[in-house]
Amino acid sequence: MKKSLSLLTALLLLGGCAGSPSNYLVLSPDVPAVESSAHGRIALTTEDARTNMNAVRITKGDEPPTLMGTGEPPARQLGELFRSAYRQIGFDLDPAASNLLELKLERIQSDISESMIGYEAENEIVISAYARNSQQIFTKRYSAKGSMKGPFSLDLATLELEMNKLITQLAGDIVNDPELNRFLMQ
Fold it and tell me: Taken in order 146, 150, 153, 158, is the CA torsion positive or negative?
């Protein structure tokens, strides 16, 4: 009887936790499709250069906005994503390489307006690339935008899916940029 009571209590507690909504955005973008090939050694770093660490802002009428961050540091996730993609292209990643590529996350933001009849969301991600070789410096800013509309309130899983798609798209634009890759191979 004591075992049954303990098991029932544990199930009720876990069941209560499973139904509560999260207060952060879970990012898990896919490694983008590689459409080019390259060679050479590069040192690759990623940095979170955002001035606003919130990734989501939800406004409902006159209420104060609800703010959400990300579950994991996005720079770490982007670092893993870009390291995998640049290896697939053919680059050898070496922290001591003379060619350096620094990717800075400048913005990852979803602004959501909710009303009685539905929601509208404007999403934006901005990453800047700073590359240096023995002779020159290369800089370029990449961005991806998206918007969503729907009835009722926005489901967080839908927003996460959209943001992950935007990150994958933007990462593909960066790793498949022929101008950047030519520079890194010099």
Answer: negative
